[in-house]
Specification:
The strands form two sheets. A six-stranded mixed β-sheet has the order 3-4-2-1-12-11. The protein has a single domain, classed as Deoxyribonuclease I, Chain A, CATH 3.60.10.10. α3 packs parallel to α4. About 20% of the residues lie in helices and about 35% in strands. It is of the alpha+beta class and about 240 residues long. The radius of gyration is 16 Å and the shape is globular. The chain has six helices and twelve strands.
Length: about 240
């Protein structure tokens, strides 16, 4: 049964303030996913030692990867990635709109891969939305629109996941729920899906949404010593099959 996870890795700086790319890779490796969606990766940034975190985590996991830099500061990059051991192709990566009245907000983006599972293409979309509610709503509408979820190429099995910085009571959640189903509601096996803050998770702001072709077996946020310290978010893990 395929397994996918989404994980905001906080530039691989843990709650103990230690920078440790290997520790984040270990968290992921222990969970044995087939597809990994990561947010808040540094690539070539002085603050994290100039390491290409996307490449290094993918190397340790022996996976292919695609990285989208939501933010560029000269040669330094910061953004999101999808890693997988399955055959894959990049469909699209690009920015999401910000709030026109607040131009200095951190740029946000999305990354879309088509991954071959059991001979079928599954669309995987990874994103990390902003912190301001109105900004999030603008970005959610863009994701639900013709550039992403309503794009003609987005047909068949689809998984949208990431850090939405919004709870299940938000406009953002309702906007995306109008297009896809929240995976936690469909899960055959129920478990905690609160992911933030990792030391005492009380908020569900990381989410997975799925199309009808995805049969959700379980969704869980593993809460153990390593996941509590490796990042300020817990990973969110889904086991699924195709119907």
């Amino acid at each position: 049964m395929p397994r996918i996870l989404t994980y905001n890795v906080h530039r691989c700086v843990g709650t103990d303030r230690r920078l440790d790319v290997g520790r984040v890779a270990e968290v992921i490796a222990r969970l044995e996913p087939d597809i990994v969606a990561l947010q808040e990766l540094d690539v070539g940034r002085a603050r994290t030692g100039g390491v290409d975190q996307a490449h290094e985590i993918a190397r340790r996991l022996k996976m292919a990867f695609h990285f989208h830099p939501a933010l560029r500061v000269e040669e330094e990059l910061y953004g999101d990635a999808i890693l997988t051991a399955y055959p894959e192709r990049l469909v699209r990566s690009g920015p999401l709109p910000g709030h026109p009245a607040i131009p200095r907000l951190e740029p946000r983006g999305a990354l879309w891969l088509a991954v071959e599972i059991e001979g079928r293409e599954v669309h995987i979309l990874n994103t990390h939305l902003g912190l301001v509610p109105k900004e999030q709503q603008i970005q959610a509408r863009a994701l639900a629109g013709p550039g992403w979820l309503d794009h003609p190429e987005r047909q068949g099995p689809t998984i949208l996941l990431g850090d939405f910085n919004a709870t299940a009571t938000s406009v953002v959640y309702r906007t995306l729920h109008a297009k896809l189903e929240p995976a936690r509601r469909l899960a055959r096996r129920k478990a905690s899906t609160s992911t933030f803050p990792s030391g005492l998770p009380v908020l569900r702001i990381d989410h997975i949404f799925v199309s009808p072709e995805i049969l959700v077996e379980s969704v869980t946020a593993p809460f153990e010593p390593l996941t509590r310290t490796a990042s300020d978010h817990l990973p969110l893990v889904m086991d699924f099959s195709l119907v």
